[in-house]
Amino acid sequence: MTIPFVTPPQVAWASGIFSAGSLRCKSTTVADLADVFADADAWQKEAHERVVYNVEMLESPYGEGELYVGATHLSAGLIGDEFFMTRGHFHQRREQGEVYFGLCGEGLLLLQSEQGEAWLETVQSGSVHIIPAFTAHRLINTGQNVLSALAVWPSVAGHDYHSLAQGFALRVFSAAGGIEVREVRVD
Ligand code: PA5
Ligand code: NI
What we know:
Blueprint: E1 10-12, E2 17-19, E3 23-29, H1 40-45, E4 51-58, E5 67-74, E6 78-79, E7 82-83, E8 90-91, E9 98-104, E10 107-113, E11 118-123, E12 128-131, E13 135-141, E14 147-154, E15 159-160, E16 170-175, E17 178-183
Antiparallel strand pairs: 1-2, 3-4, 4-5, 5-14, 6-7, 8-15, 9-12, 9-14, 10-11, 10-13, 16-17
Bound molecules: 5-phosphoarabinonic acid and nickel (II) ion (NI).
């Protein structure tokens, strides 16, 4: 009996581009990110159709114990002085964690607990980020090139974009060619 070898999907580690798998793709534009950036006037002036990030994920089964794999490609750019970033979310199923792997570019992963404690991890090729349960997460591109990261998460985790109505406790800006992290005052 000949047992056939199955060719799995492939990802190019240098770019996060998938091949040989069936993909679901989603683009997020400036228009989709109203109220995400600190400078509303700068957001208004930016071309609304400009793509801030693309997510490509492999089609895979949904259900308890199943995993999704996807790559986020976050463009380099600024809204005002604030670096391009993803919307960020908690998981709907808060107890579900996630792992991010930095592939290319330079950036930060902003993490925040339910109690509002926030911290930043540096993202670059080869970085591994274990996002704990009960922790919101957002990618920020602080570099000059696309920041790409691969993510693996439980299919049942879901995305909760609303519980951070007050936003994250930290924002990251470009300042004199460097990076400035500001704490957000919540009145
Ligand atoms: O599962 C994840 O955390 C990622 O794939 C994100 O969904 C992706 O980076 C896009 O970010 P957001 O869902 O916050 O728009
Ligand atoms: Ni997530």
